Amino acid sequence: MSIRLVPAMLEVCLELDAVAKEQHLMEYNSLSFSEEDPLGAWLKRARAKGETKNTDEVLLNLLVHLHRKIDVLSEAVSGVKREFKSLAMSAIINEVGFEYVGFGDEILSVDEKYYMRFELPVFPKRQIAMYLKACDKRVAKIELMHDDDVSDWDGFVASKEREMIRMIKNGG
Question: Are 13 and 31 in contact (CB under 8 A)?
Answer without folding.
Answer: no
